[in-house]
Amino acid sequence: MDVHVVPTMTHGRVLVREARAAARRGVIVGFHGYMEHAQIQMTRLEAIDDASAWTLVSIQGLHRFYRGRSEEVVASWMTREDREVAIADNLSYVAAALEQVPHDDSTRIVYAGFSQGVAMAFRAGVRGASAIVAVGGDVPPELLADGSVRFPPVLLARGARDDWFTSTRFEKDVAALSERTDGLQPLEYDGAHEWNAAVSDAIALFLSRISPGH
Question: Residue 43's domain is classified under what CATH number?
């Protein structure tokens, strides 16, 4: 199945790969990590077992730059400067991107982020997602500080050798989320700060539980 770029109201880059017509289970929206791009996250999503039954959407961060001294264009989601404005811009951008993807109120939508993209998955996901997949990143502090925020089912994954998303941060988020969602699945897998085959396998199992059958 082809991956194509869809237009958005802002000057962002969004990749879409449509599901098989006979097996549409929903939409998975992916957010890449720092100094990555949309194709990297699309490749991760495609590696999930039974991904062909889902429409895959990979949204690239608005803040583009060159990787080192190369000509490879990568992106980030935000910095500490003008943080609140950037969060609002990013959420509007995600909403505009989804408007270009066929879905309705009954469509399951899963937000899946890696590293810096985890924060975007959570911020978008608490606004009505069916589930959130968070790999190698923690829950945004403003969501945890707001007691009114409830979370959909969450797969929170950390590599056992990840020195960025540490075990202390992971355990803190597990404790916080366990009181705010009925569907928390914590996972520590064999790996470092990466999205590897073990992560893809765990996501496939997680998705099968929230979306049984076809």
Answer: 3.40.50.1820
